[in-house]
Amino acid sequence: MSLTWHWHTFDTIPPRILFDYLRLRSDIFVVEQACVFSDMDVFDEDGWHLVGLDANSRVQAGLRLLAPGVKYAEPSLGRIVLAAHLRGMGLADALVQEGLAQSEQLYPGSGNRIGAQARLQRFYERQGFVRDGEEYDEDGIAHVEMRLDRTAEKLLR
């Protein structure tokens, strides 16, 4: 399966795509992970949103890119989601790499910082991130801050 990638600002995302994107986030972050929290937050309005559409134009993947200074000093990927039935096919890697490419294009040389679920640390290490700090609790789920390490990223390629 392949997905087509589309970038939108919050104000330009078509209503049907926005609905599917927010529903996917809710399905994963609230329902699948059994975590009661408000997924939609003030950062959504300021971010760039990447959606991966299937052949039927349904959202199957997505992430949010925030500019430097919005959440961290560096740009930040977040709300990274992939439909459960598509996991294990390499699409999550493609999703993150598309996000990092856009981050580099918009904010050259600025790096990237994420608040990753601790259980996904190895996945993000494959993307070129390194842990940067102690584990912390966010909404009942263990997280770690990670920063993009360009040296590690080059070694992985």
Question: Secondary-structure blueprint of this entry?
Answer:
Blueprint (H helix, E strand, L loop, with lengths): L3 E6 L5 H18 L10 H4 L1 E6 L5 E8 L9 E7 L8 H16 L6 E5 L3 H6 L2 E3 L4 E3 L2 E8 L1 H7 L1
Antiparallel strand pairs: 1-2, 2-3, 3-4, 5-8, 6-8, 7-8
Overview of the structural elements:
The strands form two sheets. A four-stranded antiparallel β-sheet has the order 1-2-3-4, sandwiched between helices. Helix content is 32%, strand content 29%. It contains five helices and eight strands. Strand 2 and strand 3 form a beta hairpin. The chain is of the alpha+beta class and 157 residues long. The protein is globular, with a radius of gyration of 15 Å. The protein has one domain (4-156): Gcn5-related N-acetyltransferase (GNAT) (Aminopeptidase, 3-Layer(aba) Sandwich), CATH 3.40.630.
Sum up the structure in keywords.
4-stranded antiparallel beta sheet, 29% strand, disordered C terminus, 157 residues, 8 strands, Aminopeptidase, single chain, alpha+beta
The amount of beta strand, in percent, is 25-35%
Oligomerization category of the chains in this entry = single chain
The average pLDDT is 89
Number of strands: 8
Strand order of the largest sheet: 1-2-3-4
Radius of gyration (CA) equals 15 Å
Discrete helix count: 5
Shape: globular
Spell out the helices and strands N to C: EHHEEEHEHEEEH
Please tell me the total number of domains: 1
